[in-house]
Design brief:
Layout: H1 3-13, H2 16-25, H3 32-36, H4 43-55, E1 59-61, E2 70-72, H5 75-107
Helix pairs in contact: 1-4, 1-5
């Protein structure tokens, strides 16, 4: 997933209304009116939220007779999860190195914490 698409996904997910819409769509497709029902906002505002989700690739709309059901698209979410997992692994590796260093410092004979104590300047 490229940086621009990742930015769009995170931007779309930054709003509670859009996250709630995605949670609803995870249960199955819905009409715009069904998506709007739980919210006390205007129809144009709902349409703008759906447009942001569409631009991020998180939802698609199809034509089924006169209805335009909205469906969730999981691929962009999986890309964001992969990105976060990469960060998690990097942080975990960093913490593991810190733990190993701490254990090494604890095992150094005769070390009373001199490596972590501030040095006194005797000038």
């Amino acid at each position: 997933m490229d940086s621009e698409q990742l930015d769009a996904v995170y931007g779309a997910l930054s709003d509670a209304t859009r996250r709630a819409m995605l949670a609803r769509l995870a249960k199955g497709e819905a009409s715009v009116n069904e998506l709007a029902a739980p919210f006390d906002i205007s129809q144009p505002a709902i349409s703008r939220h759906i447009k942001v989700l569409e631009q991020a690739g998180l939802v698609t709309r199809s034509r089924a007779a006169q209805k335009r059901p909205v469906k969730i698209s999981l691929a962009p979410l999986e890309g964001a999860v992969d990105h976060l997992e990469g960060l998690r692994q990097a942080y975990a590796a960093s913490f593991a190195r810190l733990d190993a260093l701490l254990e090494h410092l604890k095992s150094v004979p005769g070390d009373s914490g001199a490596a972590t104590s501030p040095r006194k300047d005797n000038t």
